[in-house]
Amino acid sequence: SECEFPLDVRMFRHHQLKENLMSEAAKAKHNNFTVKEVEGVMLLHLDNKIVVHHSKKDKVLDRYHYALCHPGTKRMEESIRAMYTWKGLRKDVMRWCKHCDKCQRCKKTSH
User: In terms of pTM, does the model score above 0.70?
Assistant: First the structure.
C-alpha cells in the first residue's frame, strides 16, 4: 500500500538541497546517512528517518501537535521519530508542549 506523508516531501528536498545537507552528511564521521526515494523525491535520511532542516522543524512540530490533539511530549516525540529526525528533537518537542496553553492546562500531574 502507498504511504501518505503528512508534510510535502518536496519541501524537505528543497531545504535539504538549499542548505547543502547532503554534502555535509557525506563528510560526517558516523555515516548512517542514506538517500532514499519518498513519493518520487530523493531525500536524505539518517537511520531510515527523513532529515528535517532546522527551518522546517516548527512545521513538523505544529502538524504533529495538532493532528494528535495535544498528545504530550512522549507520544509526540515517538510519533515524529517514527518518520523524521533532527538534532535536538526531544528538546524541541518539550519546548513546544511547554509553550502550549492547552497542554499545560490538561497536563497530568502526580500527587
Answer: yes
